[in-house]
Amino acid sequence: MQLDAEVESLVPGRSFDRRGFMKTALGSAFAAAVLPVSAQTVHTDFNGLTAGEVNVPAGDFKMPAYRAQPEGKTKLPVVIVISEIFGVHEYIADICRRFAKLGYLAIAPELFVRQGDPRAYGTVQETVANVVSKVPDSQVAGDIDATITWAKENGGDAARIGMTGFCWGGRQVWLSAERNPGIRAAVAWYGPLKGNPNPLQPVSPVDLVDDLKAPVLGLYGAKDTVITEDVRDTMKSALEKSKNPKAHASRIIVYPNSGHAFHADYRPSYIKADAEDGWKKCLAWFKDHGVV
């Protein structure tokens, strides 16, 4: 298109989408809606790692994903990392590198790619309206299955698969643990637990606790105005009343001083002490349940 050519002439060597937004490699920049990022933002180096964008076959579609793993090693424990609404931007890529430094093959699929690029929009409202709200759970489930298959075929240990995700991704973690028997353990960071059923999101995690195939650790903030105390209590009660042993093994931890997105070190919502404690609990959860 003429717009692409005109903008390309201003910044040679970079590519642009049809609206003139600059395209960057997956995980190489922060989403426009979160700029400017905080001075507390964590940056993990690439030393000793193989890291960067890969393509995951999902049916006839090649889905981009960000992969990080220890260089030259195989039969690695796997962690599937599911992003918040901002997609696989620098924060999510850094999470993958943090896991890789600990010996994991970590991979974050870009689950929004068919609907658009969530990194390109300048506000949360635009991101949700133009991309996130159009993504069906059924599509996400298939893409996560494809990501797990790719990991198994590219250095990951099929018997040691964990999963973690943040906000929107936390909800998908609960749903995946309720659906996929190949996941050994999962950690959901402030993932929504209840919602209004619609054709794209027909069920909520709280509806499916009896189907849990893996124990889930849920990490939440008491000051979260989205996932409130009554919602958390409803989920706790459902887990406790379930006859499913995986539900009984699941836990919800609430941090009194935190709100939503307390692990997001690039945002004002970041609470360092709780983020670090949650990270330790996440790693321990995977260890205790056989992922490592």
Automatic annotation (TrEMBL):
<dbReference type="InterPro" id="IPR051049">
    <property type="entry name" value="Dienelactone_hydrolase-like"/>
</dbReference>
<dbReference type="InterPro" id="IPR002925">
    <property type="entry name" value="Dienelactn_hydro"/>
</dbReference>
<dbReference type="InterPro" id="IPR029058">
    <property type="entry name" value="AB_hydrolase_fold"/>
</dbReference>
<dbReference type="GO" id="GO:0016787">
    <property type="term" value="F:hydrolase activity"/>
</dbReference>
<protein>
    <submittedName>
        <fullName>Carboxymethylenebutenolidase</fullName>
    </submittedName>
</protein>
<feature type="domain" description="Dienelactone hydrolase">
    <location>
        <begin position="63"/>
        <end position="289"/>
    </location>
</feature>
<dbReference type="InterPro" id="IPR006311">
    <property type="entry name" value="TAT_signal"/>
</dbReference>
<dbReference type="Pfam" id="PF01738">
    <property type="entry name" value="DLH"/>
</dbReference>
